[in-house]
Fold:
Amino acid sequence: MNYYCIMVKTGGEEEFKAEAMEKCSSYAQGLQFWFFKRKMKLGGKHKGQVVDTPLFPGYVFMSALDIDQHFVERIRTVKNFYHFLSSNKNIIPLYGRDLESLHNLINHGETSGFSLATFDANDRIVVVSGLLQGFTGNIIRVNRRKQRVTVRMDMCGSINTMDLCYDLITKMPERA
Structure:
């Protein structure tokens, strides 16, 4: 299976996915699309309310066994489509670290919930489970009050920073 990244109109990702599946499924075997979202807790007057926000606004990921020029011509007619990364003339499947990151995202589902985290004796964050578990080395800032971490992720040739929520769990006190 090959995996690709497609740039689409921000805000039109879900519409693109639905229309692309309808128009293009007969042109590529094993066709599947993902638009990743994350759960975030709001602050201010909506404090505590949980909403889904895009993880990569304007990007949809796709898998297919193989794509040909007929498929590319067909998907270019889908509303909100801009281009494949890096370009429509040079369509390259994801590989290496990008592919590993995408598999990690797929394994956690299209909408990732909160990661479980604790702080160790040296006050370093330790991610116990969830989407952040695979990105512990890329955490660049921790906001304990809002229970968010800022993660730096290099995906498809660009570096993105994003805030993700975590739920704090505490260790049981050691027995004497």
User: Anything to note?
Assistant: The mean pLDDT is 82. The first strand starts at residue 2 and ends at 8. The helical segments are 13-24, 69-75, 96-107.
